[in-house]
Amino acid sequence: MENPPVINHKKISSLGLFPIVTLVCFLSAIVIGLISTWTQAFGYMPSIGFNHFSVIHWIRLFSYPGFNSSLIATMISGIGATLLAFIFTFFLFAFSYHNQFWRLLDQALAPLLAVPHAAFAIGFLFLAAPSGWVLRLLSPGLTGFVVPPDWSLMKDAYGISLMLVMVLKEIPFLILMSLGALGRIDVRRSLAVGRSLGYETVQVWIKIILPQLYPKIRLALFAVLAYSLSVVDLALLVGPTAPPTMAVQVFRWFNDPDFEYRLLGAAGATLILLLVVSSIGLLYLLEAGVKLIFRSWLINGQRRSRFFLFSTLSNFLVLALVGVSIGVILVLLVWSFTWRWQFPDFLPATWSTQFWRNGVLQIGGPIWNTISTGITASFLAVILVIGCLENEILMLKRGLKTNTTKILWLIYLPLLIPQIAFLFGVQVTLVILRLDGIWLSLVWSHLLFVLPYVFLSLGPIYRSYDQRITDVAVTLCRSPWQAFLKVKLPMLMRPVLFSAAIGFSVSVAQYLPTLFIGAGRFDTITTEAVNLASGSDRRIVSVYALFQLLTPLMVFLSALFIPRFYFRQRKGMQI
Fold first, then answer.
1. Do domains 1-40+361-575 and 64-352 have the same CATH topology?
2. 3-state secondary structure of 351
3. Where in the chain are the domains?
4. Pick from 382, 572, 376, 409: nearest CA to 489
5. pLDDT value at 519 more than 60
6. Rounded Cα–Cα distance for residues 548 and 552 (Å)
7. Which end of the chain is more exposed for a tag (fewer CB within 10 A), N or C?
């Protein structure tokens, strides 16, 4: 029998360049951006005449009118959204996992993830505004309103509406991350063993599965926390206005014509970073406290509980999550075809396609910028992630663990560090190097945020792949590269394409990187939609929001149907 071929490790060792290049790209941007922002926060910016370090801008920051209100709204909306999103996500798994409501949520998960934050916020605003669809449905019969009331539940001073919108958008993301993590937990066996011992299903989830699940999604939860505390586009749309959240206030200072306000903005951006770091530390303390408090309850052997009372709430949450998302899409669709729609009519009196015709003529540039940047960034992200994971597999085969694999978690830093805390510093550096406003710089800025999400979604599934299949393929086709292309990559086509779709949707949603790094030269659907949302014409805003929604949705649908078409003659691969 002919001996199997020997893999040329020297040739494959070039995979070690992938984690090195990835880390250099990420760390250089973050380190340069943070150092630049911190020096400006302490009054040093020679390009505008500030040549000495000073704390005067920190004093101005803390004494700025409305500072306390901005900080309170930021903490309520950010921390509240994170905790509620995690609690509701766990509720859905514990009480609705694999029932008929879960099947509805599973089918709607891809569309829910495809809806960009800005488009969702615009549609939600059209639903819940004083002249929104919800109040139109109830008026005048139940409310007596024949004109819109002068009060509003949106843009409240404490950021409650902003928190609600973020909760609805972050739950699908946490569900996706949890599903990936559950692939490394034997849920079926845990449930079977727990029920055989007399425990209720909910108690099995709380006492057995959740302690295994939480450490695997902790990083995703921290990313949600950092995003919620520093979000700008959503806060511009549905957040408080007078005063706004800290992130929006800092964003306005950075764009103020008076350059001295940029130093004040740098101090505010640094404060947001400190707030995020402190909140992550508090979450760690909360985790330790929960472990200490519930340790005895976890092992008390009690079989019965009243948790089943929450099952109805969980099922209602599924319906609310899917229903609100459908309502958001429908109200945007109706407004985009509206010509005349008076309150309290439930539907427009006159319909028109004029705004779609105008939109199609005007949106060509933003669409092209969005698609070209998103596809390029997601394609590069998938290549870098696969290269890093293949290098990790090779090192494990050799029984080694290099320093690059140990510190590869640093690629998640863009998710844990607020964008506004380092992007302005990166922009200043690029201006000095005359690299701002270049398309490749824009792609690089999007890649900073696309790659971590691709790694989060693809990593667990890629690591769970049975490497013995590839080893057998190598003995048959005599080439590791051919085995990868002909066997491993086709078998992982679904998760790879789905991860790429997630990366594309992340790129579509990028607002601050496009403005800061693009230097205003690249309009995307997101920047146009957010800018137009401050106007009064809901019809053109709806058209742009729908374009922003449809673009990633088409990519998600392609990720679902391409494997079906590719494996149309392989029934076993269509499962």
1. yes
2. strand
3. 1-40+361-575, 64-352
4. 382
5. yes
6. 7
7. N
| CB distance 91 to 317 below 8 Å | yes
Q: What rounded mean pLDDT belongs to the chain?
A: 85
Q: Angle 160-182/67-96 helices, nearest 10 degrees?
A: 40
pLDDT digits (tens, 9 = 90+) for 312-348: 788 888 888 999 989 999 999 999 999 988 888 888 8
For residue 4, the model assigns a pLDDT of 44
Count of other CB atoms within 10 angstroms of residue 356: 17
Return d(Cα 194, Cα 478) in angstroms, integer.
47
Q: What is the CATH number of domain 1-40+361-575?
A: 1.10.3720.10
Q: What is the DSSP letter of 350?
A: E
44-53, 152-161, 440-449, 508-517: range with lowest mean pLDDT: 44-53
pTM score of the predicted model:
0.88
pLDDT digits (tens, 9 = 90+) for 242-295: 889 999 999 999 988 888 888 999 999 999 999 999 999 999 898 888 888 877
Which CATH number is 64-352 given?
Answer: 1.10.3720.10
Rg for the chain (alpha carbons), in Å?
25
- The one-letter code for the residue type at 362 is Q
For residue 14, give the amino acid letter. Answer: S
- CA separation for the pair 446, 513 (Å, rounded): 7
Cα–chain center distance at 455: 13
Tokens of 134: 């919800």
